[in-house]
Protein 1
Amino acid sequence: MGKTGTVLLGMVLLAACIGASKPELSKQQVYRISDGSHASLSELAPQLKQNRIVIVGEHHSNAEHHRAQVRVVETLVAAGARVAIGLEMFRSDSQQDLDRWVSGDLQAVDFEKIYYDNWTFPWEKYRVIFDYAREQQVPLVGLNVSREITAQVARKGFKSLSDEQRGKLADVTCLVDKDYEEYIRNAFGAHAHGKMNFTYFCEAQLVWDSIMAVNAIDYLKDHPDTIMVLLTGVGHARKGAIPRQISSRSTLPHLVFLPEVAGSITLETLTADDADYLLKFGNH
């Protein structure tokens, strides 16, 4: 083979490798919870574009869930939408660092330190999200408050916060629907060890739900042509959590994806009151 042929073959192989490494949107199967029908993400793109907030739940330590979250963002970008990624994992006061990362002004080793100042789960589990945002210039938006504030609420209640600590939150009380209360009680049983007040624990959960909703709404007011894909744990993603807080504060259309988790998050265990779509994994 001549030099030209070798070069062309190398280009073809490189293109094949790049194509193979890129997630295939058509391979991500999605089930509509209301009726059990299924489709690919790309087939759902027109419906996704009708929303201003698309909430995609996760188990924090599950890398497959994070790859699926990126596929949701990719689907909207491929459909021509202007997209921002909202993050439970970052405080709003870290926004400048997120902007510097997307713009290329921070090295990965430096950004990783900032990441761990905000979040405790392994960087490598989440890196696919942050690398995609940087490569595609998709804005990242920090939505959360400091862990110190939620820890204080869990110990002493929302009323213990100063006006400065409350920030954008006028009031938070443990008023939730039955299903969400049951979810919070299960989490309380796993964390409290008999030493915490359930009402305060519930208020801490709602502080996270509320502030993420408020910050997402505020961002979208300033960016009226943008759809936010909001990434958060499955507890906050359920309709009784962040979506409820969004609905109580705005008329922004939104929908919820939850990831399939064998034995706990399935078509059989969910209803349309929990989420709109289930992200399916594996061959089962």
Note: The longest helix spans residues 198-222.
Protein 2
Amino acid sequence: MVLFSEMFFSELEGVPVIDRLEKPIGRVLDILLVLGEQFPRVSGLLIKTVNGKEKVLLIGEIDLIGSQFVSTQSTKERLVLGDLRYQDILLRKNVLDQQIVDTSGARVLRVNDIKLAKVGPDVRVIAVDVGMRGMIRRLGIEWLFDFLFGLFRKKVPDRLIGWNYVQLLEADLAKGQITIPHKSVDELHPADIADVISNVHVDERTAIFASLPDKTAAEALHELEPKIQAILLLTIDTRKALSILNRMPVDEAADVLGDITPEKADELLRLMRVRKAHQIRGLMKHKDETAGGLMTTEFITVPQNLTVEQVISRLREIAPDAETIYYIYVVDDLNHLAGALSLRSLIVSPPEKPITDIMIKDMIAVAPDMNQREVAGMISKYNLLALPVVDADKKILGIITVDDVVDFILPPISRRKRQMLG
């Protein structure tokens, strides 16, 4: 059983390897890992021998691993050294300096050093260091920083994350392929997924996004910057792109399609469901900075001749297809906006009561060409959850919900806090 105490990879790299009689064998270049368990097991060391060859020293041949030297159980003449295989995973080559997802904090971080420890009979990777101390330790100037910070009675802290809270963004590392942390990333909040995608390397974004379930991908896509949205939509498989767009609210789908080339947008729209494509095309005619560009066409209207009970019955049938039911909009025989119902008024009113008796009649509505900042001001001023958009004939075209304009309503400091919280 190998003798070992806790240490960092940077403390082991370059350490001399000697046999039991202290004859030099070589120096440590890297560490071989076996993945698949909660904490990866060290299976051997990659060493550079005294005659310049790279060989594998299996863990079973090692007697002691220390920061001063590594010693073997047998003599140099009887030592069995192997060759590196194509599928072997190496700590320095495949993990150090790589990006990782810290799934406990939904962050993308860089591995600056790696901590090893004895767990039972095995040597295992137990944590990664993502802080400044890991970097200066690798540079060999840890003592200098400790001295300088010690003058002010401070210390450069370790920033360790347990390996069980971490997932690599590269999985079949030996083949250079990308591994997506399926069980972790797709369970994060869509805003957190967007943060992860935004902060990884460009060539990894598509792989992460393409691995997400379509519903999760649809929710995350709208949280991304327009430029990243366009890149992802243009690079993923067309079938998946269509599935994602069909799961998005029409206003969000219109926003995304408005940021890609007209040719690609037209191609996707031709392949989408006819009704949804028609709604999206209608929204894309409006400028982004207007009420028409903000609105969604997913809202609920009911005729004014219904009772409370009839409206509730209708809601049970149609509500699953609506983005929001903050308000139910009432229209007259000519489809003009006549009023609005709140859910509270429906719940507390007698079933037989006509809705014209309980609806809000003095409606606040906006034209489709109103500036988006003015729209935000009206929603804020009147404390509305949604605001209808109507044409010149007072026919309702769509609604703008408060979440569509929240960034205009919040002051800059609160807006930054909201972005940090997701």
Note: The chain has 19 helices and 20 strands.
Protein 3
Amino acid sequence: MSVEIRVPQLPESVADATLVAWRKQPGESVSRDENLADLETDKVVLEVPATSSGVLQEIRIPAGTSVKSGELLAIIAPGAVAGVKADVAPGGNGAKAAARAAPAAAGAAPATAGAAASPKLGPAAQRVAEELGLSGAVIAAAAKGGRASKSDLISAGKGPGAAPATVGKPIADQPTAARGARAEQRVPMTRLRQRIAERLVKAQSTQALLTTFNEVDLTQVNELRARYKEGFEKQHGVKLGFMAFFVKAAIEGLKRYPVINASVEGTDIVYHHYFDIGVAVSTERGLMVPVLRDADALDFAGIERGIAGFSKRARDGTISLDDLTGGTFSITNGGVFGSMLSTPIVNAPQSAILGMHKTQQRAMVVGGAVVARPIMYLALSYDHRIIDGREAVQFLVTVKDCLEDPGRMLLGV
């Protein structure tokens, strides 16, 4: 009996999704729970798994189409049939005569070992592979741990065995001769990039954004990390990074100045008596801000495990919508890319965001002597409609004090 594959139930906040790519074609065998297609929403890429084993008999909706919850995507026929083909028309109607073709002979050649071992590609990586015209062998050679990332494929596209053609390549990856010819390429924004653009423009047009700065001496944080990093990792199974210190320090500041943890709804100020901290994570698809729920109840190990889990799921494309929903305050770290100073944009409807930057050895006067200290610039962008400069500055001073004397966070002083 044939099985229908439909669009999974999308969250209430997501009206539709874009069918980015089919991972299987009509006539190919599929296994239960194997990914058939990728759906891109405003926030994440969702996989459409096969609900039973069989053969992909018919594709009803082509890639690039917007779909809604429950729409029929494809049909799986029972058995291990190979060679059945189905045409896909723009309107979504397959060639049913071809779909009803007889099963292939029992002696049909099995899939090659190379095909069976094909590395997994995410939507961004798949797009790069197609644009660069990379062969299966080149993709397999570029894969690490059974998965090839976008950057892996771009590097492979510059090595031996890569297709020389430049058609479809991003301008940055084309040879100098092509760029000198004033080549151009028009590509549509991904849904995530559209959503990011929409939210950032909305934040700047609806909020009275202002940024205040301070600097922090990370000497004691560095000493603590150096002293306990090995024991911390052995005991908790996760590395002791900087972010746990900053999350803890930010929560202390939010407790002292609750308006920075608040949001605006119409003419009301909503004070949140919980601390859901968004931590910005950069991925191939763009910036994501997964949320640490009730971060004030987490210890340093819990915070580091949560962030490590978000980063891995974001890279693998398995992060969920729930991970990205909500948040009362956000932290972003441009320092990992070398940023010295920036004015981050608030992640609406939140009212403030803390920006971290690169740590540099700087000359400081300490006890009348000039010494080199690891200094980081901090930036707090905030909605001036409800947050006054006094609270913003005092919040940053609290964060600075907690980081320069981490014992404060343990003693609550």
Note: The first strand starts at residue 3 and ends at 6.
